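Moderator note: this is an archived Q&A kept for reference. The question asked for a predicted structure of one protein chain; the sequence and the answer are reproduced below.
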Amino acid sequence: MMIRANNRAADEMRTMVITPGYMKYAEGSCLIEAGDTKVICTASVDYKVPPFLKDKDEGWLTAEYSMLPRSAQNRIPRDSSKGKVNGRAQEIQRLIGRSLRSVVNFSYFPGITILIDCDVISADGGTRTASVSGAYVAAHLAFLNLIKDGKIEKMPFYDSAAAISIGIVNGEILVDLNYSEDSAAELDFNFILTGSQKIIEIQGCAERTPIEFDVLGRLYDLSKRAVAKITELQNKAISQYL
């Protein structure tokens, strides 16, 4: 059996802490920590919608993602220095936006756009999954503030969204991979699920050896248990803010 950092069991998540209201000026925010991975998630309110929603009685939600230059072991150049968003960041911010849009009713906040920003301040694997989980909390708090201010009548979220990484390292299934585990993984998956255990998205591939379909079922079962724990932490963070 593989010995993991902090003597974690194979199916054990890293310690996760979600601190709500982390940023002073954002309508909704949190700091989400999963081991040494730390992401600041904010939700900002803009009282307009993209042109494709013109004359439609709906709102919108979108996301951006970035890593601070020294969030990783080696300095990451800022996107501004390259003149464009790198492909990985673009992929992740689209995932965050898709995940939250899948559980929201746009007709409940017409004419309003929720802008999610996920900024990684410390990266040790699982930054995209932490971003999805933290982004939901930030957006939920922003909606609560809109309700409090009388801008909308009821909560647009009809379910929650959370994500977890899972993979196979040295032949063993591991939940919530850190960077060293992810780098050595033979199989690497991300499961994005709702609080009611429905699938939003599954990302993954075999890095070295293809797997049988029944293994995917085992990964899914383990991811459901992990997401259930994250959902509890999300709800606790939201209730602390109220």
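Archived answer notes: The chain has one domain: 8-76+85-241.
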